[in-house]
Amino acid sequence: MSAIGGVEGLRGSPGQVRLRVRIRVWWRRWWLDRELADGRSPGSSRDLSVRAMQLVGAAARREVACSLRRVVLDAERPCESVVWATVPLRRGVIVRWREGLLGLAERLEAREPVNPCGVARARLLVCDGTGPLYNPTPERSFEDALWWIADGLRLCPPHAWDGPVLMKLDPEHAAWTCARCGAVATTSDPAVRPA
User: Fold this and answer.
1) Rounded (to 5) percent helix, strand, coil in the chain
2) Is the peptide bond before 158 cis (omega within 30 degrees of 0)?
3) Is this prediction's pTM over 0.85?
4) pLDDT tens-digit profile of 131-142?
5) 92, 109, 101: which is closest to 70 by C-alpha?
6) Nearest-5° angle of CA 69, CA 79, CA 131?
7) Angle at alpha carbon of residue 60, lines to 73 and 99, rounded to 5°
8) 41, 177 in Cβ contact below 8 A?
9) Separation CA 65–CA 111 (nearest Å)
10) Nearest 5°: phi and psi at 19?
11) Cα–Cα distance between 122 and 104 in angstroms, integer?
12) Which of 60, 79, 146, 166 is the right S-S partner for 175, CB 3.0 to 4.6 Å?
């Protein structure tokens, strides 16, 4: 079978293939986020490319920004008013670095493009119970984690567009990935690199 939108070995209509890939990416999102956060290029696999596109979308960015803001609000509330679902927050360090967390939230909510690496890093900060938001002896200090995320959000213009490596999401668009920073862009013609 020939590749359908860059997806080899998956049988079915293009819509079914896209649905299968999205479901697989959803099930593997934690692992894929870790790969992207560690700097692996989204162009290195179809699943990473799809996940990168999801992470740079407005909905995912807004969700992570809201989570960062919620962490700050919860840390600033009196202990009695906060209901802890799982691991308690390191309130003192969060309050001390609140401006950094809120700055990251603002950057995620802005309209400017961001690198999926940084969005994955911010998502891991919020979701990883062993990270510096929750763990008093984390692998990476809180300050280092904030800079790690901020560095990951930066793009690297001019981009070194490599590809098109992402499967065609629809017949009119092809996606390209920057070989240096992992930024993703779409074009209406797969023969034309993004600007």
Assistant:
1) 50, 10, 35
2) yes
3) no
4) 999 998 988 899
5) 101
6) 50
7) 35
8) yes
9) 13
10) -65, -45
11) 8
12) 166
Tokens of 185: 């862009």
Token pair 């860059």 is at which residue? 6
The token duo for 195 is 């600007």
Confidence band (pLDDT; 50, 70, 90) for 86?
Answer: low
**E strand spans, the chain:** 161-170, 173-178, 184-187
Rg (the chain; Cα; Å): 18
Sequence-separated contacts (24+) of 183-187 with Cβ below 8 Å: 183/56, 183/113, 183/115, 183/116, 183/155, 183/156, 183/159, 184/42, 184/49, 184/52, 184/53, 184/56, 184/116, 185/159, 185/161
Percent of the chain with pLDDT over 90: 44
Work out the angle at residue 98's Cα, subtended by the Cα atoms of residues 96 and 101, and round it to the nearest 5 degrees.
130
